[in-house]
Amino acid sequence: MSKTDQTDVLHSLFMKWAQEQGIEILPLPQAGSYRQYYRLSGQNKQAIGVYSPDKSETKAFISFTNHFRQLGLNVPEIYASDLENDCYLISDLGEMSLLDHLEQNCVNGIPSEKTFDIYKLAIAELPRFQVDASKNLNFSVCYPSAEFDGRSMRWDLNYFKYYFLRLLKIPFNETALEDDFDRLIIHLLKSGNQFFMYRDFQARNIMIHDDKPWFIDYQGGRRGPLQYDLASLLFQVKASLPYSFREDMLYWYLENLKKYIQIDEKKFVEDYYGFVLIRLLQVMGAYGFRGYFERRAHFLLSIPYAIENIRWLLANVKFRFELPELMKALHEITKSEITTPELPQAGTLTVSVNSFSFKNGPPPDYSGNGGGFIFDCRALPNPGRYDHYKKFTGLDEPVIQYLDREKAVAKFLTNVYKLVDQSVQEYQRRGFSHLQINFGCTGGQHRSVFCASRVAAYLEETFSLKVSTYHQEMKNLNLK
């Protein structure tokens, strides 16, 4: 279905549900799946529209969502659906994921206390999905597999073998490596698979809404062990959490898990690192496929983070079983100079994203190219009108929270993304070297700084290019 057809179906769905005219439909950036998301806004109501061409995956998502909501879990509400045309509407949980919060509130590699607190809230909820929700859950809708069994594990391991080891030309003995895979699978299966396994429990799939974690993208869930989801969150490659925090959260999880079932804590921890290993291997296979085959910049740029996790695992974890060929290959990865393929015109474009005050005008374009964008943020809600925010900037949490709550800001940024995307893609294709994007507001302290920061992060995440930021008025602010 073309994007025009998708939006037509979603427009009709929204009209029937919201009973509103004047609907605006804006595409959202695509992540690692083939689903396409849109933000739909009427005069009074807002929703996320989803086009999901995989009918089995959609069936699993809708079934799980209805079950989770009956249990009071924080998942989106399904407003309307047209399954014949592979479209449905869900509640809009905003744009701030836990990963976004982590990246925006991290100083010298240390996340803020607020971020730590949200991680704790999310981890405390995990046993509710795994244990409580597994009761009376319809596992027959699970897709592509009803359980995380030996075959599923083999798929993940082969993903790593063929899309990472082979693509990067890491030497290995295939027979010996398959023997190691057999041993790893046998060991992992001993942990059991009677619980609900979220499968992709990571910070990108945890939204922050009303200061609480909300959960999305669980359509790949199935029967499985408890350890896998925790490993997915704490060893999420791009998050790069402090290792001491990961260990603290392991025991925080166990403390909460004991409210639901009795466990052998020592055995759980021993088995846990086996699941950390297979999750990291699966992720590296995915990065190889999405990056080297599909040439998607985000995945290529994430590979060094994955290798750093492997390096830590090799140095700090002693497995109770031998995996000689796999360990040899992993050591080789950590010692090799991993190169990434050239993307079309990748790296030739530098984007400078700036904030300024209209009282003083935008910063000069030292590249000499001219052009670019100047976005006027003065129509957005202004936290600077309130004394509480006057000592903060758009990089500080109180202002971020204020602006994140405002729908007008989200709508503004979505439009900006759409405009900037077109220029970046065309500039890269034509080999241009520089693009300047400026955000102005009254004082150059709150709205423009916030928007510039968001767009810079978006560009770094979405494209293979250099992004610089400059907040012109910061040096003039006398903040205490």
What is the tally of beta strands? 15
How much of the polypeptide forms β-strand, as a percent range?
A: 5-15%
Oligomer: single chain
Average pLDDT taken over every residue? 91
CATH architecture tag of the largest domain: Alpha-Beta Complex
Molecular shape: globular
Main sheet: strands, sense, barrel = 5 strands, antiparallel
Beginning-to-end CA distance, first to last residue: 55 Å
Low-confidence stretches: none
Using the CA coordinates, give the radius of gyration. Answer: 23 Å
**How are the strands of the largest sheet arranged?**
1-2-3-5-4
**What number of domains?**
3
How many DSSP helices? 14
Q: What order do the helices and strands follow?
A: HEEEHEEHEEHHHEEEEHHHHHEEHHEHE
Structural class: alpha+beta
CATH class category name of the largest domain: Alpha Beta
- CATH topology of the largest domain, which one? Aminoglycoside 3'-phosphotransferase, Chain: A, domain 2
Helix content: 40-55%
CATH superfamily of the largest domain: Aminoglycoside phosphotransferase (APH), C-terminal lobe
